[in-house]
Write a structure and sequence with these properties.
The chain is an all-alpha fold and 256 residues long. It has 12 helices and no strands. Helix 4 crosses helix 5 and helix 9 crosses helix 11. The chain is globular and about 60 Å long. The termini are far apart. The N terminus is likely disordered. Keywords: Coiled coil, Signal.
Length: 256
């Protein structure tokens, strides 16, 4: 029994003496240069989001260089399967400074092939790609209004890339085609609300309806990609008539 207690004590002592060494290998998020830390450590410890950024940048770099490895393709699939991953990937793809804003060609075939895979043909991914079109088109007009030429150029370039991506997939993704129609129908409704010649009762009903749409505490399940969902999107972003026109033009440009 004594030997057993001594043995356990020695193991605990050794573990305690090793603890500072183990802890010293864990990056300190306040002082660490994450570029010098291995990807495994970033994922396991303080900055898992860094893995997502790394994967997105790596995939975009590989596409620019002419192709994706099997590992790149797996990374891209994983990115496209989560909301955070999609956001980071499309941000990198649409806004990268490595692209010539005056020479934005067709999307890489490697990207299109993966987007056409059955596991990714989802309503939420289609919605995300159309949101990219709408938000960048509206942003370009807003930056033009405030005289920010740099950001206007970035938003215009992002709009062009988003449009080309959607256009290349129209006819390939049924959810994308249907959601584009619903998005346009929602714009029709919003544009009609700017008509000041409507009767007072109609306008009062619209005010209450718009308040309901903009209430973020209400969760309308199962409406992804519907006209109601796109109306809520437009209401929450408070797009004016000119911005709605810019979004409509961008959607028109998405036609194959």
């Amino acid at each position: 029994k004594t030997c057993g207690r001594v043995g356990v004590g020695m193991l605990l002592a050794r573990a305690a003496s090793a603890l500072p060494l183990l802890l010293s290998t864990r990056p300190n998020p306040a002082t660490t240069d994450w570029r010098q830390v291995s990807r495994i450590q970033r994922c396991a410890y303080a900055a898992p989001q860094m893995c997502v950024f790394d994967d997105a940048r790596g995939v975009c770099a590989a596409m620019r260089q002419g192709g994706l490895t099997d590992e790149d393709e797996d990374s891209l699939r994983q990115l496209l399967q989560s909301t955070q991953g999609r956001s980071v990937f499309f941000s990198a793809y649409l806004t990268s400074d490595d692209w010539d804003p005056k020479n934005v060609g067709s999307p890489p075939f490697s990207l299109l092939d993966i987007l056409k895979e059955p596991s990714l043909l989802t309503a939420s991914l289609s919605e995300f790609m159309l949101i990219n079109v709408g938000t960048s088109a509206a942003a370009a007009l807003q930056y033009e209004r405030v005289g920010n030429d740099v950001k206007k150029a970035l938003a215009t370039r992002a709009t062009r890339r988003a449009v080309l991506l959607v256009r290349s997939l129209r006819g390939e993704m049924s959810t994308l085609d249907e959601q584009a129609r619903q998005f346009e129908a929602a714009i029709d409704v919003k544009e009609a609300e700017f008509d000041q010649d409507r009767d007072l009762m109609t306008r009062l009903v619209e005010l209450s309806t718009r308040a309901l749409r903009s209430d973020e505490s209400i969760d309308f399940e199962g409406e992804t990609g519907s006209k109601a969902a796109w109306l809520r999107f437009l209401e929450r972003h408070k797009l004016d008539e000119a911005q709605l026109g810019a979004v409509r033009k961008a959607l028109d440009d998405c036609q194959p």
